[in-house]
Design goal:
With 332 residues, the protein is an alpha/beta fold. It has ten helices and 18 strands. The strands form three sheets. Strands 1, 2, 4, 5, 6, 7, 9 and 14 form an eight-stranded mixed beta sheet that branches. An eight-stranded mixed beta sheet has the order 10-17-16-15-11-12-13-18, with helices on both faces. Strands 3-8 form a two-stranded parallel sheet. Helix 2 runs parallel beside helix 3.
């Protein structure tokens, strides 16, 4: 789930055209135009300034749930919104006070409503920012500038009203440390209530291809589902991290005919993303991005949030980035 203890480090025609265009944008470090309900950020190709700008755009409220917050610019952006009269509330993971302590103290001193997370979850690993109760940014990575230059991560802006309403309802409960069964809105994937079943549905529903990018690759049920997909003829590719930790599971995938590449350098790209693209280039293509790792803890004991959507631009942007990472990884 974090780096602690780990080595550092819709249709085919439309999809193909978007893949080519967004590949150029990502390579140039530019964000695709924010059209429609969703738009994508791909890190480290793009700057985290887009996140700071999003915080800065708030006129009435900013609600943040963050596993790790160690970014002076982002903290200052939150403080500035508080000073401007915007209602700012922040939930930080309680088990990572060594990382979050400085941000907590700064926010508290500025009058921001900041709290450590509930003990009801092993970790609050969610990474979400909601502005003005109208638009949310769902991230796979933390706001921790220590890792910005090397971590592969994604962020999806979501202004679907049902999604944002559900995110805000859960935020209110988690901030008050009261129990809640999260609503999925139109697209949301929550832990600990339903993420494993939602991800299994995505994997089990794949018919042609399955591209998986995960920091942790240890959940038996999800790995078995990927192997079963291969056995029914789905083309599977995996980009992973730390082969010494997940070698047996990677081995299951390759033994069934899938392709796996890994990263393990302490100085190169660090695969922190959590993303799945199913049936890319078909009319039924879907993409998952969120905070959920392939681990029992992440799926069944943590507070986590992701989403599954069929937006062509997000699909193409993540698939383009995945393809580049797959081409440059070390074959397992």
């Amino acid at each position: 789930m974090s780096r602690f203890g780990l080595a550092r480090r819709s249709g085919a025609a439309v999809g193909t055209a978007l893949l080519s265009a967004i590949s150029l944008l990502v390579g140039a470090g530019q964000a695709p135009a924010a059209t429609g309900t969703y738009s994508l950020l791909a890190f480290p190709d793009q700057s985290h300034s887009a996140v700071d700008d999003f915080i800065g755009s708030a006129t009435t409220s900013v609600d943040v749930t963050m596993y790790e917050l160690r970014d002076t610019t982002a903290v200052n952006a939150l403080v500035n919104r508080q000073k401007a009269g915007v209602k700012v509330r922040v939930i930080l993971d309680a088990k990572h006070t060594s990382v979050n302590g400085s941000a907590y103290s700064t926010l508290k001193a500025a009058g921001v409503g900041v709290t450590y997370s509930s003990s009801a979850y092993v970790y609050t690993h969610q990474k979400t920012i909601t502005v003005d109760g109208a638009k949310s940014l769902i991230l796979t990575g933390n706001l921790d500038s220590t890792y910005y230059s090397s971590s592969r991560d994604y962020g999806v802006f979501d202004n679907d009203s049902a999604d944002v309403s559900a995110i805000e309802q859960v935020f209110d409960a988690d901030y008050a440390k009261t129990s809640i069964t999260p609503a999925d809105g139109d697209n949301l994937v929550w832990s600990p209530t339903g993420s494993e079943s939602r991800l299994l549905d995505l994997i089990n529903g794949a018919q042609t291809s399955l591209d998986v990018q995960e920091l942790e690759f240890g959940d038996t049920n999800l790995v078995n589902a990927i192997v079963a997909a291969e056995q029914r003829g789905v083309t599977v590719r995996v980009v992973g991290m730390n082969p010494s930790s997940y070698g047996s599971n990677f081995g299951q995938v390759t033994a069934a005919g899938g392709s796996v590449v890994t990263y393990s350098s302490t100085t190169g790209l660090y695969i922190h993303a959590k993303a799945i693209v199913a049936d890319y280039g078909t009319s039924t293509a879907k993409v998952f991005a969120g905070s959920e790792n392939f681990s029992d803890n992440s799926l069944n004991s943590n507070r986590e949030l992701g989403l599954i959507i069929d937006d062509p631009a997000v699909l193409s942007g993540i698939e383009s980035t995945f393809a580049n990472d797959f081409a440059n990884g070390t074959p397992y």
